[in-house]
Every structure is written in C-alpha cells, then in structure tokens.
UniProtKB/TrEMBL annotation:
Family according to the record: Belongs to the flavin monoamine oxidase family.
Cofactor needs: FAD
Origin species: Arthrobacter mangrovi
Origin superkingdom: Bacteria
Name the record gives this protein: Putrescine oxidase
InterPro entries: Amino_oxidase, FAD/NAD-bd_sf, Flavin_amine_oxidase, Flavin_MAO
PANTHER family named in the record: AMINE OXIDASE, AMINE OXIDASE [FLAVIN-CONTAINING] B
Pfam families to which the protein is assigned, alphabetical: Amino_oxidase (PF01593)
Keyword Oxidoreductase carried by entry: yes
UniProt keywords, alphabetically: Oxidoreductase
Length: 466
C-alpha cells in the first residue's frame, strides 16, 4: 500500500495538462508554492505523444497556428522547435454524390452557386465573430437568438443550398466541436470562429493546421513539469475537495487524492468541466455551478493514424489533404513526422459517424475507415504498416474530444459565470478559454490568466485591513 504524502502549499492545482502546468509555473515564478495532482500516470492531459509499433504518433492535440502566440512563446521558452505540415500538391474533395476532384486553394471545388453561397456564409460568420469576440460572446445583441437555434438550422435559415450548408458545417461540427451541427448553437459556432480570429481562419487549413512540434506536443507539459519537480504528483486523482463554503466559514482548501493530501489557500480545477463531478466538494458547490456543469459536454471523434512505408500520395502530386462532408472520414492530412522516410496520414471520424463505426468489430471498423481514406488517395491507403485509433471517449480522465461546449441555450445562459471563482476555487482549462478555445494555446493562456488572478487576489488579501 502506497504511503500518503501530506503537503502544505499556497495553491493546489488539479490536473497536469498544459493549462494546469502553465498556471503552476506562473505561480511558482510569482513566489507562490504549488502542488499539482494528476490522475493519470503521465502529464499532458489531452496532449499525448506515444510510440506505437515503432511509429511516433500524436495521439492528442498537435497543431500550432500563427495566431497562437502564447503557445509559440512557450515553445521558444522551453527550447522546442516546430516544422511545417506537408501541403505541397493538390488536395482532394469528395462531393456528396461521391465525385472525386483534385483542387488547389482554400475553397472546395463546387459549383458557382454553391461557392457563392459558401463565400456569403463565411462573410456572415466572420462579421458575427468580429462583433461577438471570443471573450464574452453572450453580450452580442443577438446572443440569445443565436444561442437558441442549432447551427444546422441556423445555416439553413441563411441559405437553401444544402451543399453549402454541409460544407460550412464541416468546419465547426466535425472539424472542431465534434458534435452534430444540430446539437450545438449558432452562438457556439460563432465563439469557435472568434476564438481562432475569424471563420475564414477555420476554413484555411494552411493557417489553422500550420505547424507541429518536433518530437511531439506533449513535450510542452513534460518540460513544464520538469521545472516543477516533485511538486507534480502522478497517479493521484483528487477524490475530495474541502473548502470554506459560501458563508465564508473557514479558509483555504484541502484536496484529498489517492497519493497525497494537500492543504492550500487556493485550488485550481484544471480539468475539463465534464470531470468536475468526479470530485466530491465539501460542502457542495453552489446551485449555479451544478446547473452550469450539466450543460457542458465533450464531443466524440476517432483520430485515425495510418503509417506507410513511403508517403505514396506525394508521388502522385497530392498533398494528403482531403475533405468529404459526406464521407466516413471527413478530413485527412499528411501527418508525416519531421525527418521520417515513412509516410503518415491522420484522419478524423466525428460524432454520429463515430457512433456508427464503434458498433462494428475492431476489424470491420479498421476496414471501413481505410476504405474511406482510399476513396481519397487510392488503394495503397488500404495497407498501412501501422494503424492506430485515438479514442478519447474511452479515456477515463477525459471522456471525449476535443473540448467541452454548451448545449442549446447554455452559452449565453451560463457563459458569464463559467470563470467566476467559488470561494478559493478557480477554474482553468482550454474548454473555458477565449482566444485559443479548445487548443493548447488557449490552455496556456487561461492557465496564466488564472494564476495572475490568484496572485492579485492574494496580494489584495495581504494588504486588506483585518
């Protein structure tokens, strides 16, 4: 039986992903002591770089875009280098009727009318994203209206061109929120666009999926954890968090985990909102929190990795970038590692399509997925040397991907309160970020912001009259 460790710190951080570790590092730099409790046997949260059958795979989050300045600064600080995603040659588009077309540029090769409708919808979403912004989209004059209609139905209110609506929906539903477009609001889609700078940025895969970290994104968390040393405790899920309660009776918190009990003045919940209920709060959280957390959930996606002896698609002048709004695998990209002679493809099966193939046997699912990729790139795609499916929905300490979003009406109703501290308890994860929402960049940003808020509150308390 493991020996329990008792620790006293200024701040206890629950979760050793990029957000929790960024917060802990900032607090440490500001002179506050920290302990980070992590349920898994590794750091990194939803970033995870692993070698599978001799191939290094990015099982979790991996891409870096030019606007992700917090992540870029962190990479430089930690001495990590990046390399550009391969994208030379033609992309492939599969129309709803199965027609395969090679093309270049950002816009899908569709008919003139559909293209015009796509451009009009993109411009409309760009305008809404600019007006709403990523910080408080619930303050937009149309927030309630946008939040009480699904993105699917909102698109069809704007356009009768079904192909245009499906293509635009692909970038948010399958590509980002990994939920059916009928299950989240138009306001949630506007937030997703605003968090990336514009909807146009989401459409431009060369922007949003610009670069990767040499050696893997998980190194961000690993190197931050190295700076924290023994203050990071793995295999230590927090079971109970005791705090003073709304009445203000008592001060500080006590976090009881499997391997350590930490007494601290503040706590940071640096895990996705769907995991808050895994912790028993004593006394219970306020009613508002209980209600809010029930309206946040993660989506579902299978991230498929297929490694081949060579990047065979390149000899045919293809970039490996493929889209098909009606296909099982709706997106495919060249994910070959820097300096690797082999070729790696990554593809994504989202929401209801993932539901369907999870009903199949492992062998049947693999065959169906590889057949879908071969529909873009040819029969050579059917026989990878390494095949692996990242299934974050079955991960005990994640239970979905990529990040939490609200159900219909939830964002404008609860968004203003999602970052409000509850006594000494603060909330920090990419799911709650503004810029960089659901990305590593957002996790780092909100981690630093949360740390700064605690530092400010602590300094204010120190000079307050007693």
């Amino acid at each position: 039986m493991e020996t329990m460790t008792n620790m006293e710190r200024d701040v206890v951080v629950i979760g050793a992903g990029p957000s929790g570790l960024s917060a802990a590092r900032r607090l440490q730099q500001e002179g506050l002591s920290v302990a980070v409790l992590e349920a898994r046997d590794r750091v990194g949260g939803r970033t995870w770089t692993e070698t599978i059958d001799g191939a290094m795979l990015e099982i979790g989050g991996q891409w870096v875009s030019p606007d992700q300045t917090a992540l870029l600064e962190t990479l430089e600080e930690l001495g990590l280098e990046t390399f550009q995603r391969y994208r030379e040659g033609d992309s492939v588009y599969l129309a709803e009727d199965g027609t395969r077309t090679r093309y270049t540029g950002e816009m899908f090769p569709v008919g003139a009318q559909t293209q015009a409708e796509m451009e009009r919808l993109i411009a409309l979403l760009d305008t809404l994203a600019a007006e709403a912004g990523p910080v408080a989209p619930w303050t937009h004059p149309l927030a309630r209206e946008l939040d009480t209609v699904s993105f699917h139905h909102w698109l069809r209110r704007q356009s009768s061109d079904e192909a245009a609506c499906n293509n635009i929906g692909l970038f948010i539903a399958g590509g980002m929120l990994t939920k059916p477009a009928h299950s989240f609001s138009a306001l949630q889609a506007v937030l997703m666009a605003a968090s990336a700078g514009s909807f146009s940025n989401l459409v431009d895969d060369n922007f949003i999926l610009d670069r990767r970290v040499a050696g893997g994104m998980q190194q961000v968390s690993e190197r931050l954890a190295e700076k924290l040393g023994n203050d990071v405790v793995l295999k230590s899920p927090v079971r109970t968090l005791r705090w003073g309660g709304e009445s203000g009776q008592g001060t500080g918190v006590t976090a009881v985990s499997d391997r350590a009990t930490v007494q601290a003045r503040y706590a940071i919940m640096a895990v996705p909102p769907n995991l808050y209920s895994r912790v028993s709060f004593e006394p219970p959280l306020p009613r508002r929190q209980h209600q809010m957390h029930q309206h946040q959930s993660l989506g579902l996606v299978i991230k498929v990795h297929a490694v081949y002896g060579t990047p065979f698609w390149r000899k045919d002048g293809l970039s490996g970038t493929c889209f098909g709004p009606g296909a099982l695998v709706q997106e495919v990209y060249d994910n070959t590692n820097d300096g690797d002679d082999r070729g790696t493809l990554v593809g994504f099966v989202s929401d209801e399509k993932a539901d369907a193939v999870f009903e199949l046997t492992v062998e049947e699912r693999r065959q169906r997925i590889l057949e879908s990729i071969a529909g873009y790139l040819g029969p050579e795609a059917l026989n990878p040397e390494v095949y692996y499916e990242s299934d974050w929905g079955s991960e005990e300490w994640t239970r979905g991907a990529y990040a939490a979003s609200y159900d219909l009406g939830g964002l404008h109703r609860y968004g203003p309160d999602q970052l409000k501290p509850v006594g000494p308890i603060y909330w920090s994860s990419s799911d709650l970020a503004a810029e960089g929402y659901q990305h590593v960049d957002g996790a780092i940003r909100i981690g630093r912001q949360t740390a700064d808020r605690i530092v400010a509150a602590d300094r204010a308390a120190a000079v307050a009259p007693r």
